[in-house]
Amino acid sequence: MAIRVFVADDHPILRDGLARVLESSANIRVVGAAENGRIAVRQALHLRPDVVILDISMPDMNGIEAARQLREREPKIHILILSMHMTPEHVFQALEAGVHGYVLKASVSQDIIQAVVAVHAGRRFLSPAVAEVVAEQIGRRSEVSPIELLSRREREVLQLVAEGHSSAEVGKVLSLSPKTVDTYRSRLMQKLHLRDVPAIVRFAIQNGLISLS
């Protein structure tokens, strides 16, 4: 039986190209795609694919947050990060979110099919350069990422505010009142010791929640 795969990336050309690479294998079938993490979570929970491939830098909800929510709500789904980022912060946040593999976009044609097969079988898969990052950081990461201090809603509000959305716009996305959004924003700013919205933007960029690209 073919491995059922769902793909999430905000660039349609990359999504289509990835689907073609995956379906070049007789053992893999792409069952759906999404342009951001929020849609990916909703559709993956409906379609129940075997493997979900997530880009990290996506608008509205990034791939790491999407991975967290999928792992919480459907632990049987295997999750693979496909990203251009390989900083320790990106890699360890992804691993802490419970992903099963991490592949760099630069090596996608060589690694992606092998990675899908590996994580579907319950094994870890890291691109060689990512594995080097992990090895170099062993013993160095003594502190919990500040992202872990936040609740799920606070992380969602953080990304949306950092992307420039108003409280009313954030509330519409999350089905919350603007007042409730402001409360979440105040809480996350207090937890992270951030003074204003520019500080939120800087924090989000530094911690890989949003990208300048």
Question: What do you see in this structure?
Answer:
This protein has 213 residues and is α/β, with parallel strands linked by helices. It has 2 domains: 3-137, Response regulator (Rossmann fold, 3-Layer(aba) Sandwich); 146-206, Arc Repressor Mutant, subunit A. Helices cover 52% and strands 14% of the residues. The chain has helices spanning 12-23, 37-47, 63-73, 88-96, 108-120, 128-137, 152-162, 167-174, 178-192, 197-206; strands at 3-8, 28-34, 51-54, 78-83, 101-104, 125-126. A 6-stranded parallel sheet has the order 2-1-3-4-5-6, sandwiched between helices. Helix 7 packs across helix 9 (178-192). The radius of gyration is 17 Å and the shape is globular.
Give a brief description:
Helix content is 52%, strand content 14%. The chain has helices spanning 12-23, 37-47, 63-73, 88-96, 108-120, 128-137, 152-162, 167-174, 178-192, 197-206, and strands at residues 3-8, 28-34, 51-54, 78-83, 101-104, 125-126.
Structural Rg: 17 Å
Sequence of strands across the biggest β-sheet: 2-1-3-4-5-6
CATH topology of the largest domain: Rossmann fold
Gross morphology is: globular
- Tell me the helix content: 40-55%
CATH class label of the largest domain: Alpha Beta
Order of helices and strands: EHEHEHEHEHEHHHHH
- The overall pLDDT, averaged over residues, is 91
Query: Strand count, sense and closure of the main sheet?
Result: 6 strands, parallel
Which CATH-level-2 architecture of the largest domain?
A: 3-Layer(aba) Sandwich
CATH superfamily of the largest domain: Response regulator
